[in-house]
Specification:
The longest helix has 19 residues. About 25% of the residues lie in helices and about 20% in strands. It starts with 13 loop residues before the first strand and ends in a 12-residue tail after the last helix. Strand 1 and strand 2 form a beta hairpin. The chain contains four helices and nine strands, in the order E-E-E-H-E-H-E-H-E-E-E-E-H. It has a single domain, classed as Glutaredoxin, CATH 3.40.30. With about 180 residues, the protein is of the alpha/beta class. The chain is globular.
Length: about 180
């Protein structure tokens, strides 16, 4: 399997959404980027606040030509519960992210260790958080992958970065493979 690298095509990603349609990276035609935010799932209390912040800032991303989706490996019922219980009014939520697909995107996968502080059981396995900006030609521009639920990219900082990138037509960086 090819390594996920800036300026190169991203792996296929197609997931059902809580709105009843399918979101596919190959069908997206954003002005500038698709932003894919991978969250751990309904069991994650940190994800709740993180996605609520994104939902609150969604218009700012849209104004910058960014198409946004948040995705988890949760089944439909748990994704619907997250959308409802977390009061995510406008954010598109995808679900059913396969673990093989998560790994192809360079995400870490964890084994569930029990019930979280919000009283929801962790799934047997689930991907840890990640955030990706993908250009309209389906090449990777930016990736941030975490092995833990905390220390994720701040959305206010992402908006500032997008302003810089768009103003200067700043190229993707990190495109050179590591030497063996």
């Amino acid at each position: 399997m090819a390594e996920l690298m800036p300026r190169r095509p991203v792996p296929t990603l197609a997931v059902p959404t809580t709105a009843g349609d399918t979101w596919s990276i190959t069908d997206r035609r954003p002005d500038h980027f698709s932003m894919i935010v991978v969250y751990r799932g309904l069991h994650c209390p940190i994800c709740r606040g993180y996605l609520k912040d994104l939902d609150d800032k969604l218009d700012h991303f849209v104004q910058r030509g960014v198409d946004v989706i948040a995705v988890s490996a949760d089944p439909a019922e748990r994704a619907d519960a997250a959308k409802r219980d977390w009061q995510l009014e406008r954010l598109t939520l995808g679900y059913g992210l396969g673990l093989d697909t998560a790994r192809a995107w360079g995400l870490f996968v964890s084994a569930g260790i029990g019930t979280t502080s919000n009283g929801v059981d962790e799934p047997a396995q689930f991907p840890e958080p990640g955030l990706f900006l993908v250009k309209p030609d389906a090449t990777l521009y930016f990736a941030s992958v975490q092995s833990m639920p905390f220390a994720r990219p701040d959305f206010a900082e992402m908006l500032k970065a997008l302003d810089f990138v768009l103003e200067r037509d700043y190229p993707a960086r990190g495109e050179l493979a590591q030497a063996a």
